[in-house]
């Protein structure tokens, strides 16, 4: 099925296109002129610390918050003039579950489906399909309040699919879930992507971004600090490996100068040193040759978290 504004040309492959996009709240500029393109069928991520502008950008894409300046098209249409038609083709998973606790699991799906003007027969069949997708078929007649956090999250995602959206917006989809629930949700999202659903995700979990996102942007202070695939960003902003040397509190400060020249960059943390290098084992051997004796050592591959902290810093932003 064609989305709003599709005409079969190359531009139809762009589900979202933003140019110099701005969002102001009074004198505060939450989004300060960002350029973003999301292609059909990809999983695209927004990463950034609190206050970076991720949620404000997502709300503009979701057609629930008007832009202050710049250009924005979603499904080939302008949210300012075609908001209702665009929203009819979107699925939205908010950061906080907003299920109806007084309804059963199945009723949450069927009642929501009726908001889109779908027939009762269609939403009944769709609810059965989505219950199987979310692995909630055995709980369909239970009230929502009896579900675990992971089950509620799966139900929220299932509900967002009741209108067969081409574009699914997920705001912090696995926050607060245990590892098993997170991995089950990842599996559900992989299945959606394999069906051709385009995903836009905000997340604070770097491993989640590496697992799910084909491309992503790192936002900081309302601006885009970096853009690319996880592998591209790691190659651009970090090193192939990281050597972690742990010390007793206070000992690492005096050791840092001993390690000059061993790594491309050395970061001093309260309990350890991080040595960014292409060859962690070689760096560790050299450190021992120079008399460095850490409490423990670890050589690991560089991750998206290393990139994120390099670009945005380690200072907590409230």
UniProtKB/TrEMBL annotation:
<protein>
    <submittedName>
        <fullName>ABC transporter ATP-binding protein</fullName>
    </submittedName>
</protein>
<dbReference type="GO" id="GO:0005886">
    <property type="term" value="C:plasma membrane"/>
</dbReference>
<keyword id="KW-0067">ATP-binding</keyword>
<dbReference type="InterPro" id="IPR003439">
    <property type="entry name" value="ABC_transporter-like_ATP-bd"/>
</dbReference>
<dbReference type="GO" id="GO:0005524">
    <property type="term" value="F:ATP binding"/>
</dbReference>
<dbReference type="InterPro" id="IPR003593">
    <property type="entry name" value="AAA+_ATPase"/>
</dbReference>
<dbReference type="InterPro" id="IPR017871">
    <property type="entry name" value="ABC_transporter-like_CS"/>
</dbReference>
<keyword id="KW-0046">Antibiotic resistance</keyword>
<keyword id="KW-1003">Cell membrane</keyword>
<comment type="similarity">
    <text>Belongs to the ABC transporter superfamily.</text>
</comment>
<feature type="domain" description="ABC transporter">
    <location>
        <begin position="16"/>
        <end position="246"/>
    </location>
</feature>
<dbReference type="InterPro" id="IPR027417">
    <property type="entry name" value="P-loop_NTPase"/>
</dbReference>
<keyword id="KW-1278">Translocase</keyword>
<dbReference type="GO" id="GO:0046677">
    <property type="term" value="P:response to antibiotic"/>
</dbReference>
<dbReference type="InterPro" id="IPR050763">
    <property type="entry name" value="ABC_transporter_ATP-binding"/>
</dbReference>
<keyword id="KW-0472">Membrane</keyword>
<keyword id="KW-0813">Transport</keyword>
<dbReference type="GO" id="GO:0016887">
    <property type="term" value="F:ATP hydrolysis activity"/>
</dbReference>
<keyword id="KW-0547">Nucleotide-binding</keyword>
<dbReference type="Pfam" id="PF00005">
    <property type="entry name" value="ABC_tran"/>
</dbReference>
């Amino acid at each position: 099925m064609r989305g709003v504004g599709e005409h079969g040309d190359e531009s139809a492959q762009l589900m979202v296109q933003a140019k110099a996009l701005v969002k102001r709240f009074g004198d505060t500029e939450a989004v300060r002129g960002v350029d973003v393109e999301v292609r059909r069928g990809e999983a695209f991520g927004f990463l950034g610390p609190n206050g970076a502008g991720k949620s404000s950008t997502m709300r503009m894409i979701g057609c629930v918050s008007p832009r202050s300046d710049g250009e924005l098209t979603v499904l080939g249409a302008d949210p300012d003039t075609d908001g209702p038609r665009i929203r009819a083709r979107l699925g939205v998973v908010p950061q906080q579950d907003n299920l109806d606790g007084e309804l059963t699991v199945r009723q949450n799906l069927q009642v929501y489906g009726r908001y889109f003007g779908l027939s009762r027969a269609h939403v009944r069949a769709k609810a059965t399909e989505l219950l199987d997708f979310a692995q909630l078929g055995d709980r369909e007649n239970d009230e929502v309040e009896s579900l675990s956090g992971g089950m509620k999250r799966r139900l929220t995602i299932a509900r967002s699919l009741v209108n067969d959206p081409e574009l699914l917006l997920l705001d912090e989809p696995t926050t607060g879930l245990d590892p098993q629930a997170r991995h089950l949700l990842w599996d559900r999202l992989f299945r959606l992507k394999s069906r051709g659903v385009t995903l836009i995700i905000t997340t604070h979990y770097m491993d989640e971004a590496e697992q799910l996102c084909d491309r992503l942007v790192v936002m900081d202070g309302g601006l885009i600090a970096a853009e690319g695939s996880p592998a591209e960003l790691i190659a651009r902003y970090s090193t192939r490996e990281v050597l972690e040397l742990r010390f007793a509190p206070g000992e690492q400060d005096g050791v840092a100068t001993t390690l000059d020249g061993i790594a491309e960059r050395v970061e001093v943390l309260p309990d350890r040193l991080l040595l960014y290098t292409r060859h962690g084992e070689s760096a560790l051997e050299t450190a021992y040759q120079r008399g460095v004796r850490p409490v423990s050592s670890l050589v690991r591959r560089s991750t998206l978290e290393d990139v994120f902290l390099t670009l945005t810093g380690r200072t907590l932003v409230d």
